[in-house]
Design brief:
By secondary structure, the protein is mainly alpha-helical. Among the domains are: 2-113 and 130-283, Na+/H+ antiporter like fold; 414-535, NAD(P)-binding Rossmann-like Domain (Rossmann fold, 3-Layer(aba) Sandwich), CATH 3.40.50.720. The chain contains 27 helices and six strands. It has helices at residues 2-25, 30-41, 53-73, 77-81, 85-110, 118-125, 131-140, 147-169, 178-201, 203-210, 214-234, 239-250, 256-280, 287-314, 319-328, 334-345, 351-373, 375-387, 391-396, 421-430, 435-439, 448-456, 469-475, 497-507, 520-528, 537-549, 554-569, and strands at 414-417, 441-445, 460-463, 482-484, 512-516, 533-535. A six-stranded parallel β-sheet has the order 3-2-1-4-5-6, with helices on both faces. Strand 5 (512-516), helix 25 and strand 6 form a beta-alpha-beta unit. Helix 2 (30-41) packs parallel to helix 13 (256-280), helix 3 (53-73) runs parallel beside helix 12 (239-250) and helix 3 packs antiparallel against helix 13. It is elongated. Residues 393-409 have low confidence and may be disordered.
Length: 571
């Protein structure tokens, strides 16, 4: 059994890698390659090489738990609640309006499949957009920080919250009634309450004690995920719901992004198996399934336009921004596959409906790749077409918000990678004098005491391992204009200033980089690799001592002491 499972996993990974490379060559989402890899190996549509779907499915469920845990980690609920009226209105209304329109358009068409809740599930599934696909494509276009990009991300975050609410109720959907639903809501509230209490009174002390060990932080976060997930399963909720709650609670901690960065590789392996499993189970499509998938893809595109455009008009957004957001959201989420497949397992929905959702996801993923690539051109063309009936003039009377009005203001583009004593001294010198520079700074460090000092000084900071490329990527270093590494190699762990310089140059090629060296030979290497300036603390100290002691006298030392008191101590 063990050797068969190992062979099945090996074949799955090989097929997924090969088909993903092919998908990348065609500029398609990698998810398509994973699913098609499963199709090729499966017994329904493929070669029948892998027949034991159940064994891989068990392992792929771990990937699903990791996926939902990381989604929870990346949802900043307080920030969502503090968002502007535009994001709040779009996020709250887009999903229920899309679900209602989808139910009306497709409810009758799927009623013949035999599942009691088929219409309800397909309405929910087709109203969620793919965070994975959208973020990847919008990020690659460098539009993540634009106004339309922020609106898109805001709607996606609210969709995740809607999906979390659905997962809380899902186990009792086949017994619709006040009693089961109330019990489900009570169980969900109890789980959230328990997690919140532990996160307030237990987890801070625990994580602070282990913060200097990246390995312990990671394994403790994973243990927390499986603890909450297991408790959720025991009290009648889904384990997936528990993983989301675990992530949401941990997102408030400064360690969240570091966990995401370090867990990404493990997650990707298991998530790959999850999508391969979907391909393995893909049924032979009937003519009706293919026809419904084509219609469903059109419904997805239409419902995004029919909800985003009117809501944007009410919110006084310009037509082009509304069009870009609608195009960005015009695909089916991988989360939809999770929801529908859980519905199949619980007997809520027919497997045929799951097939329709899967084929619709594949079709809209392909269309969305090109849609997002040319979103501005398409939005402009739609605007011109609607101009013939006067809609742009109608919306023009509503003032479009300017990007400068966004509440978060200018994003940080000055990165401190590790905060040494010199770094703390630099920040102290900025106090009260260079407020604009201070607002631009994002400091990354793993020492909780240093982070507390930075927060007290009003400096934006995050917990993270600067030797991990994923940590730098999640921090947004690609937008950096200045990067400073003020820690010498003797105090760095897992990297060197030379390695950091090379990584930063690959992620932010236009950034001005200041590194630190302990010897002149190291400084020459850093300059040779493209550093704009190299701090050499021993050389700086030697130069300072030389100037101070070249002609020592009481008067000269007193003058130097007065200058130091004014510059360093502020007196």
């Amino acid at each position: 059994m063990g050797s068969e499972l190992l062979a099945a996993i090996a074949l799955s990974v090989i097929a997924a890698a090969a088909l993903a490379l092919f998908a990348r060559t065609l500029r398609q989402p990698l998810i398509l390659g994973y699913i098609i890899g499963g199709v090729v190996l499966g017994r329904h549509l493929g070669l029948g090489v892998v027949s034991d779907e159940a064994s891989i499915e068990v392992i792929s469920e771990i990937g699903l738990i990791f996926l939902l845990f990381i989604i929870g980690l990346e949802i900043d609920v307080p920030r969502v609640l503090q968002a502007g009226r535009t994001i709040l209105v779009l996020g709250l209304l887009q999903f229920p309006l899309c679900a209602a329109l989808t139910w009306y358009a497709l409810g009758g068409a799927v009623s013949g499949f035999g599942g009691r809740l088929d219409a309800f599930y397909i309405a929910v599934a087709l109203s969620l957009s793919s965070t994975l696909i959208v973020v990847k494509l919008v990020y690659d276009k460098l539009e993540i920080s634009t106004f339309a990009g922020k609106l898109t991300l805001g709607v996606l975050i609210f969709q995740d919250l809607w999906a979390i609410s659905f997962l809380a109720l899902q186990p009792n959907l086949d017994r619709i009634g006040a009693g089961p639903l109330l019990r489900s809501l009570a169980a969900g509230a109890a789980l959230v309450g328990m997690a919140a209490l532990l996160s307030r009174y237990v987890l801070p002390t625990l994580f602070r004690a282990i913060a200097t060990s990246y390995e312990l932080v990671l394994i403790t976060a994973i243990a927390w995920c499986f603890l909450v997930s297991g408790i959720a399963g025991q009290i009648g909720l889904s384990t997936e719901m528990g993983a989301l709650i675990a992530g949401l609670v941990l997102a408030a901690f400064p360690y969240g992004m570091e966990v995401v960065a370090r867990l990404s590789g493990v997650r990707d392996f298991f998530v790959t198996l999850f999508f391969v499993t979907l391909g393995l189970k893909m049924p032979v499509p009937s003519t009706r399934t293919i026809a419904l998938a084509l219609v469903a893809a059109l419904v997805v595109i239409a419902t995004r336009a029919l909800t985003i455009f009117p809501l944007s008009a009410l919110l006084r957004l310009d037509l082009r921004t509304a069009g870009v957001v609608a195009i960005n959201l015009s695909q089916v989420s991988e989360f939809s596959l999770v929801i529908v497949n859980l519905g199949v397992e619980q007997g809520h929905v027919s497997p045929d409906v799951a097939g329709v959702v899967l084929y619709t996801l594949l079709l809209t993923a392909v269309l969305s790749t090109y849609g997002i690539l040319y979103n501005h051109q398409i939005a402009t063309g739609v605007g011109r077409a609607l101009g013939s009936i006067g809609i742009p003039q109608w919306m023009a009377r509503r003032r479009a918000p300017r990007p400068t009005a966004e509440p978060r203001g200018r994003p940080q583009d000055f990165f401190l990678l590790g905060v040494s004593r010199e770094g703390l001294g630099f920040l102290q010198r900025l106090e009260g004098t260079e407020t604009d520079t201070k607002r631009r700074i994002l400091a990354i460090d793993f020492n909780p005491e240093t982070l507390e000092r930075l927060q007290a000084q009003g400096v934006e900071c995050m917990y993270g391992d600067i030797s991990n490329t994923e940590t730098l990527h999640h921090a947004g270093i690609e937008r950096a204009t200045i990067v400073v590494s003020s820690i010498s190699d003797s105090f760095l762990r897992g990297t060197t200033n030379l390695n950091l310089l090379q990584v930063v140059r690959s992620l932010a090629p236009n950034a001005r980089i200041v590194a630190t060296a302990e010897t002149l030979a190291d400084a020459e290497k850093l300059y040779g690799e493209g550093a704009h300036y190299v701090l050499i603390p021993p050389a700086l100290a030697a130069e300072h001592l030389y100037k101070l002691l070249a002609r020592p006298s009481d008067a000269a030392l007193q003058a130097a002491r007065r200058r130091q008191a004014a510059d360093v101590f502020g007196r």
